[in-house]
Design brief:
This protein is an all-alpha fold. About 65% of the residues lie in helices and about 0% in strands.
Length: about 140
């Protein structure tokens, strides 16, 4: 089942949306310190919204978030990098993330058992208990 379109969707071309989606996926997948999914979770913990962000990974259809949440979770330099990667404004990135950051977190969690070594799967299960221990998506 697909989610209905959001009124928060920015006015972007299909190529810009695809480029931004790819940039967000790459951003969440990086293992650089302070970046990637675990950097996002660290910032969520610092901002006292860890449970909400963790919930995105386990909810079948995570709800949209707020601009304040995006500001807490994504540093300005990372927003600028995402904007440059897609060739759009930072405001367009924020509007896109309102809808798509929770969905990207969910997509990241669903893909974990398929593309990660066992030690990283164990680390992910600490944050996302919905990941089945058998490697089957939960």
């Amino acid at each position: 089942m697909t989610q209905p379109p959001s009124r928060n969707e920015p006015d972007m071309t299909a190529d810009e949306r695809h480029a931004l989606a790819a940039a967000i996926d790459a951003y969440l997948d990086t293992d650089k310190p302070g970046m990637g999914m675990y950097g996002l979770l660290d910032r969520a913990g610092d901002a006292a919204v860890y449970d909400q962000v963790r919930g995105w990974g386990c909810q079948p259809h995570p709800a949209e978030t707020s601009a304040a949440m995006i500001a807490r979770l994504i540093p300005p330099e990372d927003l600028a990098h995402l904007a440059a990667a897609a060739g759009v404004s930072e405001q367009a990135v924020v509007r896109y993330l309102l809808v798509h950051l929770p969905r990207a977190v969910r997509g990241f969690v669903l893909a974990l058992p398929m593309r990660r070594p066992a030690d990283i799967q164990g680390r992910a299960r600490q944050h996302f208990p919905c990941i089945a221990t058998s490697g089957v998506k939960g």
